């Protein structure tokens, strides 16, 4: 287990991130003044490792907090995992960390977007190449987990839409997308196959 405390009054954490091997991505818990707030999966670059870019974490989402603690319980994470994180002000106050604001490669210039990274409409809760589209992992393993597979085609009949939703559900089952939730101890898992065609939608649940 690795943890590090940061002063919330400095408003931002600038996290060095790599886009390499997913095996070196870790779940990181966020605690504010000793209270658990949330968890996210991220490829943090420890000191000495390659840094592809920095990600800014706004501590303003934890109003009234004095201390933010990042915690990683993965036994394989390096002990200096959080040592490269910089506690500071807004992104524009750190031009050495963010030299390419609004000018990243392949960025849409005529589009409402954040200064760094992407928003959910071009790149949201999705994985590719054999992973679920959407997964909701409960904090309490006694609560249900949710897996959603999405499909979309133009000009589908109701029968085609139904078959597409059934195929989406079948994909969840066939490819065992529930493996991650099961390994986390989640026993109740709802699986949704969702198909879209224009304004029409079909949902199949197991």
Features:
single chain; 206 residues; mainly beta; 2 domains; 4-stranded antiparallel sheet; 4-stranded mixed sheet; 2 helices; 11 strands
Describe the structure in your own words:
The chain has 206 residues and is mainly beta. The protein has 2 domains: 2-93; 134-205, no CATH class. Helices cover 11% and strands 33% of the residues. The chain has 2 helices and 11 strands. The strands form 3 sheets. It has a 4-stranded antiparallel β-sheet with strand order 1-6-3-4, with no helix packed on it. A hairpin with an 8-residue loop joins strand 8 (134-136) and strand 9 (145-152). The longest helix has 17 residues, at 158-174. Residues 121-128 have low confidence and may be disordered.
Task: Give the topology, please.
Layout: E1 2-7, E2 12-17, E3 26-32, E4 35-42, E5 53-58, E6 67-72, E7 86-88, E8 134-136, E9 145-152, H1 158-174, H2 179-183, E10 189-197, E11 200-205
Parallel strand pairs: 9-10
Antiparallel strand pairs: 1-6, 2-5, 2-7, 3-4, 3-6, 8-9, 10-11
Which shape, going by the Cα principal axes?
globular
Q: Which regions have little confidence, pLDDT < 50, spanning 5+ residues? A: 121-128
Order of helices and strands: EEEEEEEEEHHEE
What fraction, in percent, of the residue positions are helical? 10-25%
Number of helices: 2
Radius of gyration: 20 Å
Largest sheet: 4 strands, antiparallel
């Amino acid at each position: 287990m690795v943890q590090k405390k940061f002063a919330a009054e400095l408003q931002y954490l600038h996290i060095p991130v790599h886009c390499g091997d997913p095996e070196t991505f870790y779940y990181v818990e966020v605690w504010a003044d000793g209270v658990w707030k949330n968890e996210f999966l991220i490829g943090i670059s420890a000191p000495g490792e390659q840094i592809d870019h920095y990600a800014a974490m706004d501590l303003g989402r934890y109003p009234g907090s004095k201390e933010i603690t990042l915690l990683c319980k993965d036994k394989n994470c390096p002990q200096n995992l959080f040592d490269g994180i910089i506690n500071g002000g807004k992104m524009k106050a750190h031009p050495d960390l963010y030299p390419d604001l609004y000018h990243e490669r392949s960025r849409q210039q005529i589009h409402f977007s954040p200064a760094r990274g992407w928003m959910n409409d071009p790149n949201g809760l999705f994985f590719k190449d054999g992973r679920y589209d959407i997964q909701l992992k409960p904090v309490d393993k006694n609560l249900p987990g949710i897996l959603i597979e999405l499909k979309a085609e133009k000009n589908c009949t109701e029968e085609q839409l139904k078959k597409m939703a059934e195929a989406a559900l079948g994909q969840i089952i066939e490819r065992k997308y529930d493996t991650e939730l099961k390994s986390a101890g989640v026993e109740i898992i709802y699986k949704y196959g969702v198909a879209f065609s224009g304004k029409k939608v079909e949902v199949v649940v197991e």
